[in-house]
Amino acid sequence: MRSYQVLIIGSGFGGQCAAVNLLKAGIDDFRLLERRDFFGGTWCQNTYPGAAVDVPSPLYSLSFAPYRWSQMFAGQAELRRYTEHVIKQFGLRDRVELDANVERVEWDESEKRWAVHTNSKGIFHAQFLINASGPLSQPVIPQFPGRDRFQGKTFHTNNWDHSYDYRGKRVAIVGSGASAVQVIPTIAPQVEHLHVFQRTPHWVLPRVDRQFGPVQRWLLGRKPAYKLLRWLIYWQFETRVIAFKYSKPAINMVQQHALRFLKRQVPDPLLREKLVPDFTIGCKRVLVSSTYYPTLSRPNVTLHSREQGIASIDETGINTADGEHVEVDLIVWSTGYDATDGVISYPVSGKNAVQLSDVWAEYPRAYLGTSLPDFPNLFIVTGPNTGIGHTSALFIIESQMNYIIDCIRTVRDQGLRSIEVRRDAERTYTAMIHREMQRTVWKSGGCHSWYQSQSGHVIAMFPGFSFSYYRLTRALKPADHILS
């Protein structure tokens, strides 16, 4: 029997952060389960052309692992190197089980532990279970009529096939979100023709990037300088919440800035008209690019708006809603992820065989976005309402660790076996979240985004300042929990 004090599902930044924090708390009886055949998560999986972070690298990093970044917005290759740097620095490679796809997990009330069933590595047992599989790990591909008839090449940006040479080919990109605006400028100069199928235009702001020189990189390797730069960037970005939630004049000012940017970069009024969103900026993810708009003006790029969208797919290409047949060699699905209703992709059975899918049937929710009644010793990293639209997700992950480690330490130090959030505490917290959400642009901005579940509730985002979430997670509140 393979039994551990803690099992961590996922080996991306969430799993790495959990592992390092366990080690710092003196807990070394843990194992990471990774469904893929490599360690590392998002920035090792997403290798599409142009992949890069859209938060400044010094902030999009773990506070305990400074790094000498080469530029303000790191590309995928450098992010992968940073991931490997963290893994090596803290000796995590020997603590991971690869090719261990979790198929279901079950709570054993008599033993006070979780049984984790995997596809090929058997069953693992643990007193505590930390799900760190991440919200952007389940790609979504729309079921267009005839999709399976296409005889050319297809893949999702999440699984880019580098064995396929797209140069000189006719390519369709389906989607215009965060990954699409990185792929499109990168491959457009190399393809014969690029067709961009846009369901909804997004607001785009300029990407103010810069290379770090040798002296600056040396300073980034020094903890005091690194910490100072992180906090300067953090507070600059934190002010964005004022526009997203508290000030209509502020958000109007940002939107006017985005409109001026669009007008400056797209001189063709007909093309520009297709690119103006019909919702308030921030309602959907704001994209950051200084090359996307100019690329759409290239002679070998065609933008298909919703009215010219996909009606069906056949053997040779795409049939549009306005009657055109677009022949292509490659279809790239840049269509996002199931980041709300699919927060956890495998069945979870808690106390008295309560199913997580039933608890979340109306919409996903959790106390601090992390724990639930009837699911003792289970913690969800980047769970419901922990997303952040204005700063680094890693700040939220590190905040969650304060709560998670405090829970585990409390059970251990008091000689107990389990901790479970009280039902009334979860209900009170969830009510607060959705009451506060009413004031945000994510709820009232006039769009339907991937931030929302099928119920219409905004599930992906935390409705306030990230330091407010940090305060909520800073210390365990014993009165909100059942300890046994």
UniProtKB/TrEMBL annotation:
Q: Any idea which UniProt keywords this protein has?
A: Monooxygenase, Oxidoreductase
UniProt EC number: 1.14.13.-
UniProt-listed Pfam families: Pyr_redox_3
Under the heading Gene3D superfamilies, the entry gives:
FAD/NAD(P)-binding domain
User: Quick check: keyword Ligase in the entry?
Assistant: no
Enumerate the GO terms in the molecular function aspect: monooxygenase activity
The name this protein goes by in its record: Flavin-containing monooxygenase
| Organism (species) | Pseudomonas retamae
Lineage of source species: Bacteria, Pseudomonadati, Pseudomonadota, Gammaproteobacteria, Pseudomonadales
